[in-house]
Write a structure and sequence with these properties.
Elements (H helix, E strand, L loop, with lengths): L1 E2 L11 E4 L16 H17 L8 E2 L10 H11 L2 E6 L7 H15 L15 E2 L10 H4 L10 H13 L4 H21 L4 E2 L18 E8 L34 H10 L3 E7 H9 L7 E5 L7 H6 L11 E6 L5 H5 L1 H16 L5 E4 L2 H22 L21
Parallel strand pairs: 2-3, 2-4, 4-5, 7-8, 7-9, 9-10, 10-11
Antiparallel strand pairs: 1-6
Helix pairs in contact: 1-6, 2-3, 5-6, 7-12
């Protein structure tokens, strides 16, 4: 699977920048929350261009370089297969991201197969701090890396790149840290590059952060058919081999399941998401007492199918507000919009009680809207779960309640 890297592979990127996407604070104002990461990336590339003979466009890679028509999964897998150095941009969100964990694991697979805690981490991983993260809050894969961040400056260690690039008084610290990181990337790319290795699909690799689990569970149920069990009049373009691969907002850039976006957003907020199809979660969702807060991602087409409607009878009941429903309506999906009236009638008939709840989101028009709305949906489902969750007293005999006593007593 791997091969030694000969000298002169000038068009292979020196580094792959792996970072956690930050959702917009307000999806309506058009602000790009990740523009500062791109600024850092471009300045690193400029430094590497001056320090080496690398041709234009080959200094580094980050996923913002994807263009309309690109297949994002293939492009990222291709660059993870050929980059010399992997640069993870540490932040609390980074280690909660399933996407970032898979990029890390796929890069390791090139050199020695699946990540093994008993083996040394390749020198070709050169981490950088975006925002500070405690060592104890990192997964084992990151804790195993021996990297002296102090070489990039004490202010950088204290604030991370985000902190020192945002404040004018730290400009010289930012310039020094950026140059030092670029030098480190070049040095490692020349002395200890990762051998070439073909990664056909990085999303099929288990995350390197599997040991890093948030404490708050939440259930994410995908209510959608798979491509082999579609309604008779539905095209398979938005579906996959299993319901969890449903991608209602699929574009020419390729498919990424909506459930994957939900997992990243949930983990970034300290939740431990369990993703599954309705068949896997129906029993737990129908239970009288809640087992965890839950979000149901509903494909309107699924509610036209008899087996799905039967499974929802025990879920669509009043007073079960720890289960929240979200319904994507992609206005660019012409087949769905042509059947809008019929699909909405099926939704009302099947999930009328859930859709009438104030927490429900019956119309999610875009992927950006989904990313913006889901965090609040998770929060509301959790609040209702905590109101209804069973409380278990500690083991052992009961004790009298303590009381305050006066000085005379």
């Amino acid at each position: 699977m791997t091969a030694p890297r000969p000298d002169g592979d000038a068009h292979e990127p020196y580094f792959f920048l792996s970072y956690a996407h930050v959702p917009p604070y307000d999806a309506t104002d058009g602000t790009d929350s990740n523009r500062w990461v791109e600024k850092l990336f471009r300045e690193l590339c400029q430094h590497i261009m001056h320090l080496t003979e690398v041709p234009s466009g080959a200094a580094g890679y980050m996923d913002r370089e994807l263009r309309t028509g690109d297949n994002w999964k293939e492009k990222i897998s291709e660059h993870l297969s050929t980059c010399r150095v992997f640069v993870p941009l540490y932040s609390p969100r980074y280690f909660e991201s399933e996407q970032c964990g898979r990029e890390w694991a796929a890069f390791l697979d090139r050199g020695r197969g699946r990540s093994d805690p008993g083996l040394p981490t390749p020198a070709a991983i050169v981490p950088a701090i975006w925002t500070p993260v405690r060592l104890t809050a990192m997964p084992a894969a990151a804790q195993a890396i021996q990297f002296n961040h102090v070489d990039l400056g004490t202010r950088y260690v204290e604030e991370g790149f985000y902190g020192i690039m945002k404040l004018a008084r730290y400009r010289t610290h930012y310039q020094a840290a950026t140059m030092e990181l670029a030098k480190r990337i070049v040095a490692v790319a020349r002395s200890s590059p990762m051998p070439r290795g073909h990664i056909p699909d990085y999303t099929a690799v288990p995350s390197a952060f599997d040991d890093h689990t948030p404490e708050r569970p939440i259930t994410v149920t995908v209510l959608a058919p798979d491509e082999d069990h579609l309604p008779p009049d539905r095209r398979p373009y938005h579906y996959g081999r299993k319901p969890q691969e449903w991608d209602p907002f699929r574009t020419s850039n390729g498919a990424r399941p909506l459930a994957d976006h939900a997992v990243d957003l949930a983990r970034a907020r300290g939740y431990l998401p369990e993703v599954g199809a309705l068949a896997q979660h129906a029993e737990a969702l129908s239970a009288k007492e809640p087992r965890s807060p839950a979000v149901m991602l509903v494909d309107p087409w699924a509610t036209t199918m008899d087996d799905c409607r039967e499974s929802l009878q025990g879920i669509d009941l009043p007073g079960r507000r720890w289960i929240t429903v979200m319904v994507p309506w992609n206005r660019d999906d012409t087949q769905t919009m042509a059947n809008e009236a019929r699909l909405k009638a099926c939704l009302r008939e099947t999930l009328g009680n859930k859709l009438a709840e104030p927490e429900a989101v019956p119309d999610v028009p875009t992927l950006d809207s989904f990313r913006y709305t889901l965090p609040e949906v998770l929060n509301r489902a959790s609040q209702h779960y905590l109101k209804r969750a069973p409380a278990y007293p500690p083991a052992g005999p009961s004790t009298d309640r303590p009381r305050l006593i006066g000085p005379e007593e």
